[in-house]
Amino acid sequence: MLVGAPLGQNLQPGTNRSGALFKCPVAEADCTQVETDGRRPSDDYDDESSVSTGLNPPGKDEIKDGQWLGVNVIWRICTRDLHEPCKGRPSEKAHEQFGVCQAGTSLALLDDGTALIGSPGPYTWRGTLFVQTIVGKYLDRDRSVYLGPLADTPEPIDKYSYLGMSVTGGKFFNKTLKTYAAGAPRSHHHGQIFFFNKLSSDKPMNIVLIIDGEQFGSSFGYEILSADLNNDGYDDLIVGAPFYFGKDQGGAAYIYYNLRNCRTDTPCEHKVLYGSLESRFGFSMTALGDINKDGYIDVAIGAPYEGGGSIYIYLGGKDGLNLKPSQKLKAVPDIIKTFGYSLSGGLDMDGNGYPDLLVGAYSEDMILLYKTRPIIDIDITINSNELKHLNTSKPGCEADPHSNSTCFSFYSCFSISSAEGNTDKLNVSVKSKIIAETFDGYKQFSRVWFKENTTDLYSSFVEHWYPKKCQQDTVYVFEGIRDILSPIKFQVTYELVENTTGSPILNQSSVKVFEASFQKDCGDDDICQSNLILSATLPQLTVLADNEDLFVLNLGEIEEIMLQVNVSNFGESAYETELYINHSKSLSYIALDKGGGIQCTTIQSTMVNCSLGNPLPSYKNLSLILRFEYKEGTDDQGELHFYAFVNSTSKELSTQTSANLTASVKKQAEVHIEGYSTGHVVFGGEIKGEAAMEHYEDIGKRVLHSYYITNEGPWHVENLTVIIHWPWQVANDKPQGKWLLYLEEMPIIEGGECFAYPSYAINPLNLTGKIDGIGNTAESQIMPLRYPNMPDYNFTPASIPPPLTRRKRDAEFVVTPKEIIASDGKKRKIVVMDCNLNTAKCIEIRCSVSKLNKRTSTTIMLISRIWNSTLVEDYNHVDWVSIISRAQIQLADKSIEQDITNDYTQVETIAYPEIRQQEDAGINILIIIGAVLAGILLLVILIVILWKLGFFKRNRVNDPTLSGNLTRQSENETPLLGH
């Protein structure tokens, strides 16, 4: 075992904590340091000191202190060589070039002889990845050193990204071409994974894919691991984010399958494993190889700060990594800390054919080797010629011919096998147990007893030294039993006795059930030849496409699913006739609805067994109806399956003993939304400023909008969301507009909850309602009136301004009226306040309902005030103002089929000015014209009378002085109208 100690004291003289490499034999308790530095070649002329056989101090061109030798250790048998990928590259600008290279921070050796060297330091810690072939003949192999892009422009890799903290390679996109991956845990502050392909040797490698982390500061890409977890021929990728944090989570590991389907501009599909709080789960990872011999690679993931440290073992499979750990290794409390800080797996250290796991705990200067225990199978066989045709009238048996009771004997044998094929070296002790009838609820009392202990249970202990071991057991039948038709069932169980460290474990429970049957009346030859015919159907469901075995199930239409099975026997008596029904996991058996006294039981979770008779007589017809219920949330792939088959211990002549039914599962839920509102309101009166508002009643009339959501079924809907766009301000080109519909409170919903975005849009002025003398609000509740649905619209959420104080100039904007021809044929000037027309500013309100069952509904009530002053000030000259809110339904379950044309609606409130109402009730135009003419005529008559009386004639005094003054005034002054 090779262990790196990056802060260790090296054997080379003249160095201080430059790092060291230790070798640790498995058979010994301590490690020794490997000489890694100080033996300079004789042709090194940089150091003029003589070369001795001992270790020399560093040369003049070497800086060893703090070099972190051993920060990463990998091994392969090859010739000695020293790779310095940054040597000879530009370093005049120090850390802005290759001055701080930090090559070797991460390493990987691929199976094709390619070495990957992570170097997070170059170019201000952008980091890069060096790729070089190190295996093969020197003259034949590719000797070029490839590296990732480091140019300032274009700049896919930012400064301080630390690319190269982790490296790996694999067949991610092509089964024959390898791609190289490197983690950049600080890129964009959340971490990224970069994938590279080789180009020519004089050009940087090409970036083919970038995967982004999800959380700020999670160090996504601190550790990465590639392996084909599902044996599809493509390598998968596991990415550690040890600093991920959640409410009860600390650290995460992201699993990416099918990377060939990923694109940089869209998130890759993945699964996530989470660790416990502050555990740094994902800090270390390793591929274990196949530890359970199922043909799939297994993985270990470290959480070094979960207590003293923990390691989680995950098993691979056809669907990838099992998200539930199969095993958890924990540090010894209060003794070991940082257990799992580093991991190395995949190598068989003890030669038992199973890969082992090496664990590092750096704070204790300790490594621990976990050896995988061998996995074995126990194969059980039962041999006897006395298990058939028991005759209770005949005492004794071959093993005990003088017994007064009927008896029989059998041999129970077991053999041990291993996936490795070698069991000779396994020292195994086996404990066996045989139970007669009283297991798994088969019978309460047994009809037999064992010779050794006169009970229905017999146990023994056997040490296994040979490929196969057998033991004979003799069983006696109690006298006077009445049930001689049903078989006597036995269960034999073998268990391993763990008597030594590292002893094998069983792959699965080693249990076998067998039976002994009584003599039957089947004619002279005692051979019953039955002819069983089975047919099955789903009577409640619709047959699909003229195929009597294909059906359609609309979930919710029926409470229970009925399976009708018909069994007929057209041959001789069928003994121990059993009906088995294998069904999908999403179904649960309830009971037998019709069966004529037949009992059915559940075997495991997907099998139902019905005993049809012992015997089932000739020409007997049975019709059974079994009831099942559908369990939501299970993986049924959109189909339900029933496989029914019948058998017996008789010789079967028929080939029609089974039926296979399939039902296509559909989720249909017709959900629609309707809108209601206050029919109309009237605005008028004085104009009040925002500061004058103390109560809701000061704003204006109350306006109610209601949305009625109904699920007609037949299936229920979960996690339903209603998105409402609410016109709270008049639109303008400023952050704030004039108030329009002012919400008094958060919308009210039955069986759910609502949230506004932004939340301060709900009663932002903190107003209250007026209270009368008996504690009620002064204004009575206005019941909403039904308003017909309006045409469908495309919803585009308006931008929400920040909660700033509204300035007057922000509100100085008036929506331009438009003329329409009303139903009475007259031209009307109206204003429409609608977010879709950009005439209103809307907030978004999201109301969620956790579950809406079929034929149920829920209502969302929005209580608001129309801002009277806004309409009086700016829209008193129009015939009416139309204010529109909109709502849309969203279903979380996309598999539900429904009509989406009624998932949208809008509600309109019409506001009329008071002055317009007066004009509408005005006087006839002829009366107005007549009154004007009469007034003019009266004025003319009055002028004539006054003229006749001399009213317009004035007599002045003949005063020259006055006349002169008047003349001068007229000459020197200009009339006011001249200006």
From TrEMBL:
- Does the keyword section mention Transmembrane? yes
- Can you give the residue ranges of the Integrin alpha third immunoglobulin-like domain? 680-913
Query: Which PROSITE patterns does the UniProt entry name for this protein?
Result: FG_GAP, INTEGRIN_ALPHA
Region entry Disordered: which residue ranges?
33-62
Its GO CC terms?
A: external side of plasma membrane; integrin complex
Q: Where are the FG-GAP repeats?
A: 89-141, 206-265, 268-323, 327-387
- Record keywords: Transmembrane helix included? yes
Tell me the ranges covered by the Integrin alpha second immunoglobulin-like domain, including all copies: 522-663
UniProt keyword terms in alphabetical order: Cell adhesion, Glycoprotein, Integrin, Membrane, Receptor, Repeat, Signal, Transmembrane, Transmembrane helix
Q: Which Pfam families match?
A: FG-GAP, Integrin_A_Ig_1, Integrin_A_Ig_2, Integrin_A_Ig_3
Q: Which terms in the Gene Ontology molecular function aspect does this entry carry?
A: integrin binding
Q: What InterPro entries does this protein map onto?
A: FG-GAP, Int_alpha_beta-p, Integrin_alpha, Integrin_alpha_C_CS, Integrin_alpha_Ig-like_1, Integrin_alpha_Ig-like_2, Integrin_alpha_Ig-like_3, Integrin_alpha_N
Say which family it is in: Belongs to the integrin alpha chain family.
Q: Kindly provide the name given to this protein in its UniProt entry.
A: Integrin alpha
